[in-house]
Design a protein that fits this description.
Blueprint: E1 2-8, H1 27-34, H2 39-58, E2 70-74, E3 80-84, E4 88-89, E5 95-98, E6 102-108, E7 114-121, H3 127-133, H4 136-143, H5 149-166, E8 178-181, E9 195-201, E10 214-221, E11 224-231
Antiparallel strand pairs: 1-6, 2-3, 3-4, 5-6, 7-11, 8-9, 9-10, 10-11
Helix pairs in contact: 4-5
The structure holds coenzyme A.
Coenzyme A (COA) binds at residues 45, 48, 74, 77-80, 96-98, 118, 161, 164-165, 168-172.
Length: 232
């Protein structure tokens, strides 16, 4: 269904100072990093590139391109894409997510599919998040989950963000147009260690209808919820 890489900040000592390490960035990326002023943004941006480049190299066969030959860039919408030196745009769509300590990148196995990936920390959150961004059904799920409420909020929020990224829209769409049910039907291609979610995309989504083809799966890893959505 998809391939993914999760990297940890502890693997990259220079991250704490927001610096790239020799041979890591392409010259285009060097110019982008130079324009990022704030340390948390620089760290996250670098973590996302670290995950994406490792994934591209893993999928590039026996003679992978050097890290600096891979540019992980963004379209005007914010959607990421990959340029490989001497070859042009990489044929697979890619999705990126980062929190302060981890970076996630995922690509679909089918290059014609769409993908969205998101990672969220399981932690107490402002109740306004549920009030403003969740459907009433999702809010009920949170209330009825008792001590597991923080994880349930992270799972629902992560699923919404993964689907928003798959649609290429980010938070431009009303998040209540994406309805998450925690218990999805099992399906054959569901990767081992991941669990299905049932997600419905409302008709107001200004993108191709994806609900029928949409597969969304999640897993917990080191106090984080990872979600990947694939369609097509
Ligand atoms: C996309 C969005 C949901 C990401 O949520 P987040 O939890 O803050 O951050 P995450 O770490 O999970 O994801 C960030 C990554 O999402 C990707 N992304 C951004 N916009 C995207 C979009 N429209 N579609 C798909 N992916 C997108 C990028 O790869 C970004 O990482 P990068 O900037 O380092 O390349 C959120 O930032 C958003 O909706 N923003 C509004 C749209 C926007 O402002 N886009 C930027 C225009 S330049």
């Amino acid at each position: 269904m998809f391939r993914y890489v999760l990297v940890r900040a502890s693997e990259y000592p220079l991250l704490d100072s927001g610096q790239a390490w020799p041979g890591f960035l392409s010259s285009r990326e060097d110019a982008i990093l130079a324009g990022l002023q704030f340390l948390p943004r620089r760290r996250k941006w670098l973590l996302g590139r670290a995950a994406a480049k490792r994934l591209v190299r893993q999928l590039s066969g026996p003679q992978p391109v050097a890290e600096a030959g891979i540019s992980v860039l963004n379209r005007p919408s914010g959607e990421p894409f990959v340029l490989v030196e001497g070859r042009g745009e990489w044929e697979f769509p890619i999705s990126i997510s980062h929190r302060s300590e981890v970076g996630l990148a995922a690509v679909p196995e089918d290059r014609g599919a769409r993908i969205g990936a998101d990672i969220e920390t399981v932690e107490p959150r402002d109740p306004a998040l549920v009030r403003q961004f969740f459907t009433s059904g999702e809010a009920e799920l949170v209330v009825s989950s008792g001590e597991a409420a923080d994880e349930v909020v992270a799972r629902i929020w992560s699923a919404k963000e993964a689907v928003l990224k798959l649609l290429g829209l980010g938070l431009r769409l009303d998040t209540r147009g994406i309805a998450v049910n925690l218990h999805g039907e099992p399906f054959l291609e569901c990767p081992a260690g991941w669990q299905p979610l049932a997600v419905k995309v409302g008709v107001e989504a200004p993108a191709p209808p994806v609900s029928r083809l949409l597969r969304v799966v999640w897993r917990c890893e080191a106090n984080h919820v990872l979600t990947v959505a694939v369609a097509g």
